[in-house]
Design brief:
Largest sheet: 7 strands, mixed
Distance between the termini: 10 Å
Strand content: 25-35%
Bound molecules: zinc ion
Radius of gyration: 20 Å
Shape: globular
Number of strands: 18
Structural class: alpha/beta
Length: about 350
């Protein structure tokens, strides 16, 4: 079968590899969609400390069960049948550490990831490892939800995790930095689930801003390359500032702007990580103190968030279909990374 394998930074090859054999505690799936995101681009250029090459990458996965290991049902309590439509979690918690026992599986200290320690979804077939089955990380795709939409449940789950921490209230003013797919999903969830009021979308890439604004219809857009973002948000909120700010980008300055534009009792999510070579920002601590700001991190998602994402897609509460704007066969998967990097598509999905 064909698989896209990472060997070293900038050395990712489409190869013919043997079809994997299903072990007694594994489920083998035929991958139908594996979507791409900025993380894939980062891996392509820089690799990742937890990624052991050669490794089939791809972590936003939906497919069809083709084989079930003999011990799967007795060991994990779920019965799977060939033909079942499934979505696979990407961040795999251990289920046993202090954080997992507290129910904070997104920050499991022993977290492993599909596409890092286990072969991922840019392949015709893939094995769902027992570590995923053990934490109930293989999810049935609800009726009426396509494989393409289900593959977007993983990034969607990360956004759900972040917003859950923010205590968003009905009518809150929301500013989202970053008009990529995840910024779009944030806006959809904030409106569909949390019923926010005015929504402002900020980016420095005019083309991407326009494309995403067409899809999710924010109340206001701000091109950060042309306008003083903080000043404009203050203007739009009558000088009060934004109740909720989410930075879905790796640009340091957006975190500083987020703090500067937050309203009293404002809640901020540093959703996007910063470059590891430059991970610091300047923060006026007195602004945080006197304005009583709440600044949250966000690290991936827990299995439960993936289930909830599928549910929101199924009920239509948070649509994702129209955010998938580009479909590419596995043979051209490397092109998908270029498209993601260029910002010329919202979500790119690979169809093996
Ligand atoms: Zn991703
Ligand atoms: Zn754990």
């Amino acid at each position: 079968m064909k698989a896209l394998r990472f060997y070293a930074p900038e050395d990712v090859r489409l190869e013919d590899v043997p079809e994997p054999e299903c072990g007694p505690r594994e489920v083998k799936i035929k991958v139908r969609n594996c979507s791409t995101c900025g993380t894939d681009v980062k891996i392509f250029h820089n690799g990742h400390q937890n990624l052991s090459p050669p490794r089939t990458i791809g972590h936003e996965i939906a497919g069809e069960v083709v084989e079930v290991g003999a011990e799967v049902e007795s060991a994990f309590g779920t019965s799977w049948t060939p033909g079942d439509r499934v979505q696979v979690i990407a961040a795999v918690p251990c289920g046993e550490c202090h954080e997992c026992r507290k129910g904070w599986m997104a920050v499991c200290e022993n977290q492993t990831s599909v596409g890092y320690q286990y072969d991922g979804g840019f392949a015709e077939y893939m094995l769902v490892p027992e570590q995923v089955l053990k934490v109930d990380g293989l999810n049935r795709i609800p009726e009426g939800v396509g494989f393409d939409e289900a593959s977007a449940a993983e990034p969607f789950a990360c956004a759900i995790n972040a917003q859950e921490l923010l205590g968003i209230e009905e009518g809150d003013t929301l500013v989202v930095f970053g008009a990529g797919p995840i910024g779009c999903m944030h806006i959809r969830i904030a409106r569909g689930v949390h019923k926010v009021g005015k929504v402002v979308l900020v980016d420095v890439n005019a083309e991407r801003l326009q494309m995403s604004a067409d899809a999710v219809q924010p109340d206001e857009v701000i091109n950060g390359a042309e306008v003083d973002v903080v000043e404009r948000v203050m203007e739009l909120t009558g000088g009060r500032g934004a109740d909720v700010v989410i930075t879905a980008t790796a640009a340091n300055v957006t975190q500083e702007q987020a703090i500067a534009m937050a309203a009293r009792n404002g809640r901020i999510s540093f959703f996007g990580g910063l470059p590891k070579t430059n991970p610091t920002i300047t923060c006026d601590s007195n602004v945080v103190h006197y304005r009583q700001l709440h600044i949250h991190g966000a690290n991936g998602s827990a299995p439960e968030h993936n289930k909830r994402a599928l549910e929101y897609i199924a009920t239509g509460q948070v649509p994702v279909k129209d955010l998938i704007t580009e479909r590419i066969p596995l043979e051209r998967a490397l092109e998908a990374f270029d498209i993601v990097k260029s910002g010329k598509a919202i979500k790119v999905t690979v169809e093996p």
